[in-house]
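Record type: monomer structure entry
Structure origin: computed from sequence
Chain ID: A
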Amino acid sequence: MTDFDTRPAAGADGAFPGVLVSRPDIARLAGVKRPAVTNWERRHADFPTAVNPGADIERFRADDVLAWLSERAVPANARRPGEAAGTTYGDRFRAGLSGGAVGGLLRAVERFAGPEADRLRGSMPLDRYLYWLLYLVMNQIVEPDDGLANAVDTFRESDREHDLPEDVFPRHLLAELADTLGRTPAGSAQESRAAFDHVLVLWRAAYAREGGAFFTPPSVSRVMAGALAAVRPGAVRVHDPYGRTGELLVAYLDAVAAQCGSALPQVRGRVPERLERQVAEWNLRVHHGGSVRLGEGRLTPALAPFADPPGAFDVLLTNPPFGRRLEDVAPPSYWTYGAARRTEFDWLQYVVSLLAPEGRAAVLLPAGASFNAGAAETVRAGLVEAGAVECVIALPAGLFTLTAVKTQIWFLRPPGSTTAADPEVLFVAGEHLGHRLTRTQWTLSDDDVARLVGEYVSWHRARSAGRCFPGTPGLSRAVPVPGIVEHRHSLDPARYVRPPGHGSAAGAPGPDETRDVLARLSHEIASLHARAEAADAEAAGWLGRYGL
């Protein structure tokens, strides 16, 4: 039995109009213990208020509770068997009220992309199969009534006209997938997005093994997007000149939407390959609705130096390709800080040239870009002394699925901005953060993301108010440009931030220092495992090309 009732509640017009629930109902439907509901009320000022405060049994509008719970994901250690990452307490609550099951679409997608993938795809390459699955999931989400049927009918009509080969239009496969997905609607918007993202990550991994185009880890995307959304509120023109599968634009729109109903900006981007461009457009449509047409891009902007208007964007964030040499490229006009010998230093100068006055950018780069000598040092020196570099955040190793390269986030501004006067650079040493996700992969927790974003935002606000930023021992430090020049323009945070536990008392190392050493060794081991797996995958790819 339950004690929730359906007496009319004024103004209730959501998924469960008129339904009222008590605190025990909320706990049971959300799958938590009764004290958890009381703790939510005490700790969160936005928790729904009772419609009959002071009564013996206070009741709450179910729709209000559902909306509140839908913003809170179930932690990994609290998920039930069968609940996928991304499941919220709202998913449980909705399913309990409607008599449905949480995560039906997610479970179907996980099955099709996992245990049943080899049976269903047959001789079809895995990346092609996952692409079709992603297409069908997208249609089920954006047009739940008849999107799947219309998509399959369109291909059937084209098949009748052109007799498409099986690897282009897998007739039986699409029929089976579409039939099952069509009978498995998502329980919530969060579940829809989690189902799409699950296939997206797998497709990107399968596709990247051939092309080397790596998916930006979600936690890294959130650091880049959250920081920019906080320091540049109200930005209108947002751009990713190397959009991959749109993950950074999606993360930025998520961050803006979380800022109490801020108007969504105009987003645009460029993606070099047709399939990636199509998937990026699907990604933006699933997560934020509407259609976004992305343009064509190049491996490095020096090959198309007039693709984007200079000085045009309020916010720019990108994960460009790096580590490739530029040969026989005519110096474009934006190379004002030095000749670029590698793609990352071409991208850095291009990004700065695209920023509007007071614009901000976040660029994901290999750690070596912050300390390599030669032409790299020349470009760094020009950027630093012009005041174009605001912050460098070092990230832990092992965040990427298919590569062990260490990365950093560079935050940039146009040299003419008001805050570029008397410049300093904030260094954030986040290598010791994160936790193991799999044997070879690490991720940043919500608290880690908040710490990294918080350091940059706090420094930015202090600078804007004319105050000194004290930094956080073991995590961050602001360094004036002359201090960076003394170190040959190195921008490696490890050079300026003392790691946690550094300087312990003489004799046996203290607990903090020991933990730091062990954490760094664990990162190095994870990095070596990931590098070995990537080498194995590359070797298997080459052998496969020769039928071995």
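Annotation 1: The longest strand covers residues 355-366.
Annotation 2: The CA atoms of residues 152 and 358 lie 48 Å apart.
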